[in-house]
């Protein structure tokens, strides 16, 4: 009988240069979001998959944002009845000030064991791994018992409303499990995230000549500063952690303490509401008392707290500070969510990491949010695993280690074989 596992892993080892070249090619498309134009990179991916015998359905959310669905398989009548979704996004955050990069952010060069460029870690190296593996399984003719679908979306970095949720809400893809190639630790896939509560409030003031402040006029900026200080108390919201997640939170806290930068203090965010004052927009001119100031806040919500309660508490804190303002939620809104270790896709991927790396692996939570929450909303078990130099994500000089890119591709392949199963065939 054909040993498909060995055959696939040997092919990845033999074709490492092809995998890495695909990574480089994806980075060379400057798919920054905003503006979020995915047409050129999508056309490249469609052609790449077509060469492997895989057709792609294109679902435009806008004229420039294209969602791609490519399926390897014959449909829901396959023996396993399973459909595994490999998911990734083509958009990247803007490169920013090019003078602060040590290299061209869209070069895709490989230097000293690293893939260089914007999106290397978040998440074009992981996306390339998913695409490469799907194409490889097609070229080798691996007789999967279920469907393997690629879902490639154009909109994740600005909230993702035109990507994964747009596709799932319209029933354009179905799945029994999903793997997202978002950056993670090499031995620690992400199986859950904190919730999110983004909100803003606007403070009104009375304008006047700057030379007479503070005796004339009422500065909206000064009033907003009092509100900012009051909102720091969101951290003190009482958190009642549900019993079913206490152990995974403990595991995640220990992981962060041991392995993450600033882990000796960062572990605390798993059981607290965090508060980041993201933007402040106020005033019209330096010598005019500000008549208006708008604050935008990014708050992340732990298990045991509802994001709507965070909004209510924010309103109360502002009132206590003497600020009567409407608190408006926007962007990321949702509660903490996770996929149990007992789900087959989780155990299969963790087992695959152990096989490929020869080391112990286990899932952890992350303090950020991602497209994973949308899959869970549609009752699709999901986890995240991808290559990354975590400290460079959304930073200048973004890069990803080559060895992780290769390891992740092998893990994606093994996970597909394990989860979907393979028909017995003769050599």
From TrEMBL:
Its EC number is 3.5.1.18. Keywords: Cobalt, Hydrolase, Metal-binding, Zinc. Gene3D superfamilies: 3.30.70.360, Zn peptidases (3.40.630.10). Residues 191-321 form the Peptidase M20 dimerisation domain. One of its GO terms (biological process) is lysine biosynthetic process via diaminopimelate. It catalyses: N-succinyl-(2S,6S)-2,6-diaminopimelate + H2O = (2S,6S)-2,6-diaminopimelate + succinate. It is an enzyme of class 3 (hydrolase). Pathway: Amino-acid biosynthesis; L-lysine biosynthesis via DAP pathway; LL-2,6-diaminopimelate from (S)-tetrahydrodipicolinate (succinylase route): step 3/3. Its cofactor is Co(2+); Zn(2+). GO terms for molecular function: metal ion binding; succinyl-diaminopimelate desuccinylase activity. InterPro entries: ArgE/DapE, ArgE/DapE_CS, Bact_exopeptidase_dim_dom, Peptidase_M20, Peptidase_M20_dimer, Peptidase_M20A. It comes from the Bacteria. SUPFAM superfamilies: Bacterial exopeptidase dimerisation domain, Zn-dependent exopeptidases. PROSITE patterns: ARGE_DAPE_CPG2_2. Belongs to the peptidase M20A family. This is Probable succinyl-diaminopimelate desuccinylase.
